[in-house]
Amino acid sequence: MQVLRKDAPWTMQSPWPKGSPEWYPDTVxxxxxxxxxxxxxxxxxxxxxxATLGPGSQFGPFASHGCIHLPLAAVQTLFDWAPIGTPxxxxxxxxxxxxxxxxxxxxxxxGNPVSGIRGA
Length: 120
Hints:
There is one protein chain. The protein contains 2 helices and 6 strands. The chain is α+β, with helices and mostly antiparallel strands. The strands form 2 sheets. It has a 4-stranded mixed beta sheet. A two-stranded antiparallel sheet has the order 2-3. Strand 4 and strand 5 form a beta hairpin. It is globular.
C-alpha cells in the first residue's frame, strides 16, 4: 500500500448504520494519512490512552475499525515527513507466519478494497 491522501483535520464517519454494533459517532481527528481507498489510515486517537496503543491494540475497548491509531506527536511527524506515494506496510503483529498474515490482506496494491463492508 502507499499514502494515498492526507487530511487535517478530518471527521471520521461510521460506514455502519446507527444501532449496529460497529457504529460509532462522528469523530474528529487532527491528522490522517490514508493508505486504502476504503477508509483505512494512520491517525491520532485523542480519546484513547497512549498506553493502549501498539501491539495488541487491535483488540479491546479502543480497537479501531481498520485504522492505525497513533499518538498525536507520531502522526504529526509522519504527516510532515511522508509525501503521497510513501509505501505503507501493515503487519498484524500477532506473531503468525507471514503467509497467514498475507491472507488477511484487505486491499490490493493500489489500495482498492478486496472484501469487507466497504469492499466487494
